[in-house]
């Protein structure tokens, strides 16, 4: 794997005792006297390293193939490539991105069941062989455009308890799976395994158990037809932050016994997954600036109540919105929570507030109602856990540009990353190596931090 270069991105080393929050405060202080207070991200690459270690501890049998669609920032992809992850790509462009940083084709799965013929041909010409399918038409396209492909049959799941359901669009039933396997045999195509996705934001870990059991049935069907199937892809659906009802380890504690039951270690089956938000959600914090403000006075009711704290509501307009980073509200069912950059005073009154994006569209609303102290134009509002399905789908609608991303990493995380790069992932990596990594960007709100940070900006 080639080393980082300054053409790709820059990052800032965090000195001991400092966090990504210090860099965020530093960036805000730098523009405090300027009118150019553009929205920006601080992304902690060390958080991704820590997530990688956590993954291997919780799912030791499962190799992560990062879902590029979740966040295609080159720094993120490069970091995961150095850590040895594979990649789930859904298009020619994503394949080109991953291969441009030196990832070999065998570490890529073209995990889109419905592909354009020209893009299937591109996968073939670039050496990418693993790809998913869920229909006879797709089989026939692959037979013509990429006959040496190693195909993975995607089956449907019960994703009724997921936030974002995918089986309404993708997946074959068990009955259809047998027909597809028979058709693949007729076309002399290689079926190497089964994949599924329980839906994004899965809230019921038992869904994984049923899907793994169904995959076992399809493996048995394939064996009857003479296929040598050796790959199980358990998809995504893993949380990327701690503000969720179902924690990561609660899911993995159910997955591991199911894998041991249906695909025991001595079965020789390779198991992969397609985590996206798990790796990047908590690594990104977004800072937006208040560019306009409107005070809406409440109508007088004739009441004798003299409580002045509730006589108005406040509307804040900030310089990023649902056509930019907050597209996650529309497309990913995200519920974002504003955090004040400045600590409020204990005696500050709170008001009912709404937060709006900068475009001229009335749909561009970030927060409908939230109680917080009165703020002024030029003040900053922060949003944590903003790494998943945000920057990747942001547009420049109305001429508003995407926020700049500032990358940071601690020295212990950088050293651990280099160790993995040079020696491969070591199961015996000592616990203190992981424990020494600082907290993620999704720091505990309200804690006071030093105003300045002694850091070194270098090229990765």
TrEMBL record:
InterPro entries: Ala_racemase/Decarboxylase_C, De-COase2_C, De-COase2_CS, De-COase2_N, De-COase2_pyr-phos_BS, Orn/DAP/Arg_de-COase, Orn_de-COase, PLP-binding_barrel
Domain Orn/DAP/Arg decarboxylase 2 N-terminal: 45-281
Residues the record marks as active site: 360
GO biological processes: cell population proliferation; kidney development; positive regulation of cell population proliferation; putrescine biosynthetic process from arginine, via ornithine; regulation of protein catabolic process; response to virus
Enzyme class: lyase
Enzyme Commission number: 4.1.1.17
Domain of life: Eukaryota
Pathway: Amine and polyamine biosynthesis; putrescine biosynthesis via L-ornithine pathway; putrescine from L-ornithine: step 1/1
Domain Orn/DAP/Arg decarboxylase 2 C-terminal: 40-387
Modified residues (N6-(pyridoxal phosphate)lysine): 69
Keywords tagged on the record: Decarboxylase, Lyase, Phosphoprotein, Polyamine biosynthesis, Pyridoxal phosphate
Requisite cofactors: pyridoxal 5'-phosphate
One cellular component (GO) term of this entry: cytosol
Any one GO molecular-function label of the UniProt entry: ornithine decarboxylase activity
Catalytic activity: L-ornithine + H(+) = putrescine + CO2
Family: Belongs to the Orn/Lys/Arg decarboxylase class-II family.
Function per UniProt: Catalyzes the first and rate-limiting step of polyamine biosynthesis that converts ornithine into putrescine, which is the precursor for the polyamines, spermidine and spermine. Polyamines are essential for cell proliferation and are implicated in cellular processes, ranging from DNA replication to apoptosis.
Protein name: ornithine decarboxylase
